[in-house]
Design goal:
The complex is a heterodimer. Chain A is an alpha+beta fold. Helices cover 25% and strands 36% of the residues of chain A. The two termini of chain A are 21 Å apart. Chain B is an alpha+beta fold. A three-stranded mixed sheet of chain B has the order 2-3-4. Chain B is globular and about 50 Å long. The N and C termini of chain B lie far apart (51 Å). Chains A and B meet through strand 1, strand 2, strand 3, strand 4 and strand 5 of A and strand 1, helix 1, helix 2, strand 2 and strand 3 of B.
Chain lengths: 135, 173
């Protein structure tokens, strides 16, 4: 699975996700990536989110929308929302994976509960951050 | 002044350090950094976040080391079924496709659904038909063939398991 989230010079947010699914899957199984709110979501004033991992868990937890809702309804910041959903809620349910997210203030969160996540980001003209494993 | 930012991912899972050589790791990181450059250039030019994420994901779909587009894994039947979605925060418009085959860039098809249909999610043959009507590029199965993915599939078939990408020691039967 691959994905991208961004905030532009006008403060608008967007998210995109694409995947080839799971090896040897049957029955036209579909994961979270194309489900708006589960694997992909972009709001107007809160955040944009793209997920990757074991899709069934991300669908049941409505992960991407959950992050946006925590920010909108509970007033938590992006870091707190992502940490709660990925490292607490998903872990308790057994869901492995992670997400990337950005908010209107250009805060970038790359959060995962697995051994690693292929990830990279850039804020303004700062240098590119790229990692695979946990820091 | 409003800041610009972009982030990308290329999948998550139990990525084994023991299976990662320095050269392979550098290859993955180079691909991720190139993808970030694609999106950042668009944002730095004053263009939209929507365009940035679409072009960035399109770049990643064309990179065979990631499980999307050209690098998609094999289904049980030996095909490649791809899913994609895009959403614009400004307009709250969204488009998605699921279970599509032979579409070179599913993210472009998802964006066509967003822009050119009254729907949000199209699937399977119908989504492909829509893509052909919209003039998207389709590729033969050979375009999506990758020897590493094929070996992954053979192993999954042998053990009758379904596996997440990048998760080589955990399987879901």
């Amino acid at each position: 699975t691959v994905g991208a989230v961004a905030v532009d010079v006008s403060g608008n947010l967007a998210a995109a996700t694409s995947t080839g699914g799971m090896t040897n899957k049957k029955y036209n199984r579909i994961g979270d990536s194309p489900i708006i709110g589960a694997g992909t979501y972009a709001a107007n004033h809160t955040c944009a989110v793209s997920c990757t991992g074991h899709g069934e868990y991300f669908m049941r937890a409505v992960v991407a929308y959950d992050v946006a809702c925590l920010m909108e309804y509970k007033g938590v910041n992006l870091q707190q929302a992502c940490d709660y959903v990925v490292k607490d809620k998903l872990v308790k349910q057994g869901g492995e994976g992670g997400l990337i997210a950005v908010d209107q203030a250009a805060n970038i969160i790359l959060s995962f509960n697995s051994e690693g996540m292929y990830r990279a980001s850039r804020l303004n003209n700062e240098s590119i951050y790229s990692r695979i494993y946990k820091d | 002044m409003q800041k610009i930012a972009i982030a990308v991912h290329g999948g998550a899972g139990t990525i084994l350090r023991s299976a990662m050589s320095p050269e392979k790791e550098r290859h993955y990181l180079n691909a991720l950094e190139s993808a970030v450059k694609v999106g950042h250039h668009i944002l730095a030019s004053g263009r939209t976040a929507l365009e940035a994420v679409i072009k960035t994901v399109q770049y990643l779909e064309d990179e065979p080391i990631f499980n999307a587009g050209k690098g998609s894994v094999f289904t049980h039947e030996g095909h490649h079924e791809m899913d994609a979605a895009v959403m614009c925060g400004q307009t709250l418009t969204a488009g998605a496709v699921a279970g599509v085959r032979q579409v070179r860039n599913p993210i472009l098809l998802a964006d066509e659904v967003r822009m050119q249909s009254e729907h949000v999610l199209l699937s399977g043959a119908g989504a492909e038909e829509f893509g052909r009507e919209r003039g998207l590029i389709f590729e033969p199965d050979s375009y999506f063939y990758d020897e590493y993915r094929y070996q992954q599939w053979l192993e999954a078939q042998r053990t009758d398991t379904v596996t997440l990408d990048h998760t080589e020691d955990r399987k879901f039967g």
